[in-house]
Design a protein that fits this description.
With about 375 residues, the protein is an alpha/beta fold. The chain contains 12 helices and 13 strands. Bound molecules: 6-O-phosphono-beta-D-fructofuranose. Homodimer or homotetramer.
Length: about 375
């Protein structure tokens, strides 16, 4: 079969930041058309930007990207390292020049970077400082990447969190307790809000709405008065009480950030305070990295594949320095300069917030 013309002759893929379900599906989605439709050479870079600096390139063949659609994690490995400030021995150094030299030596025409908010910034920096083109694909269970309706990994994590909340319901009713369940999401509440609504949580606490303990306690007591003798609290890891807001950081970052000098972990503070205010026994569950593990959902496999093949096409067309966004059910390129450094948090007027409020869910305010 003849190959279609391609501007990029050699591309390199890396996965950066926290892993999530769907990374391998994207790698496969990029590599298959790149190899077979466009005849490109496809390289993998191991362990994110660190591997780029340490020259850890591997050649990706059809055999290596076959059978990985359903696999969690990333076959390339990942790290949170950034080229601009990388720990080398005892010190942090700017390794951007080394990264550029390695890419030039391998004759890479475009680096395809799979990652979240930090990766958008790192990829932009790499292109600006080395002139080597990049394309990014938005990954994260947090769903907080700007300019895309959704990130891959989010749907799977939301499904896992919802299942956990379902399971907590049966034990909560049996013991008539308050069950507080902490859910990842960094400074954004998408995962907790989505899973909280889908899992029927009675209280949902997200960073975008700093809460009042009195308000939550009142809603829990009201449930008791109505004969409901248990309650499920879905708590985002980045949530905070109204008097725990760090106003300096909040102003700097443009999203609500809590004080980090508090002695007792968030989930324990919430459970203890609610028990004190309501006299109802409570228990805590932190879902943590379970949310990032396992096989991607059908929705994530579909999204990852579409995003991957779009990135391959953009490489072939030479449409570089963009992020593959998903908007109105289509993959579309958006300039990386418009994404990097921004965060997508839950707007106060989002339909999910309205749905939660209208079904009587307490949002802590
Ligand atoms: O960004 C994904 C995420 O899982 C966040 O929800 C969480 O705050 C963070 O990564 C945890 O990172 P690490 O695995 O480095 O502890």
């Amino acid at each position: 079969m003849g190959k279609e013309a391609s501007k990029a002759k050699c591309i390199a893929l890396l996965t950066s930041g926290g892993d999530c379900p769907g990374l391998n599906a994207v790698i496969r989605g990029v590599a298959k058309p790149a190899l077979h439709k466009y005849g490109m050479k496809v390289l993998g870079i191991q362990n994110g930007f660190r591997g780029l600096v340490e020259n850890k390139f591997i050649t990706l063949t059809d055999a290596q990207v076959s059978g990985i659609l359903t696999k969690g994690g990333t076959i390339l490995g990942t790290s949170r390292d950034k080229p601009k400030k990388m720990k080398m021995g005892e010190q942090f150094l700017d390794m951007t020049r080394v990264a550029g030299e390695n890419l030039q030596r391998m004759q890479v025409d475009c680096v395809v970077c799979l990652g979240g908010g930090g990766t958008q910034k790192n990829a932009l920096h790499l292109w600006k400082k080395t002139g080597i083109p990049v394309i990014t694909i938005p990954k994260t269970i947090d769903n907080d990447v700007y300019h895309t309706d959704i990130t891959f990994g989010f749907d799977t994590a939301m499904t896992t969190a919802t299942e956990a909340l379902d399971r907590l319901h049966t034990t909560a009713t049996s013991h008539q307790r308050i069950m507080v369940c902490e859910i990842m999401g960094h400074n954004a509440g998408w995962l907790t809000l989505g899973a909280g609504i889908a899992g029927g949580a009675d209280v949902i606490l997200i960073p975008e709405i700093p809460y009042s303990y009195e308000c939550i306690a009142e809603s829990l007591k009201e449930r008791r008065r109505m004969g409901k003798n248990f309650s499920i609290v879905a708590l985002a890891e980045g949530a905070m009480a109204q008097d725990e807001v760090d106003w300096e950081k909040t102003e700097k970052k443009g999203v609500f950030v809590g004080k980090d000098s508090l002695d007792i972990p968030l989930i324990n503070r919430v459970a203890q305070n609610l028990t004190e205010l309501t006299n109802i026994e409570s228990r805590v569950t932190t879902l943590g990295h379970i949310l990032r593990g396992g096989t991607p959902s059908a929705t994530d496999r579909l999204l990852s594949t579409q995003m991957g093949v779009t990135a391959a096409r953009l490489c072939a067309e030479g449409q570089y320095n963009v992020m593959v966004a998903y908007k109105n059910s289509h993959c579309t390129p958006v300039p990386l300069t418009e994404v990097a450094g921004k965060k997508k948090v839950v707007p106060q007027t989002h339909p999910w917030i309205t749905a939660a409020r209208m079904t009587g869910t307490c949002l802590g305010d």
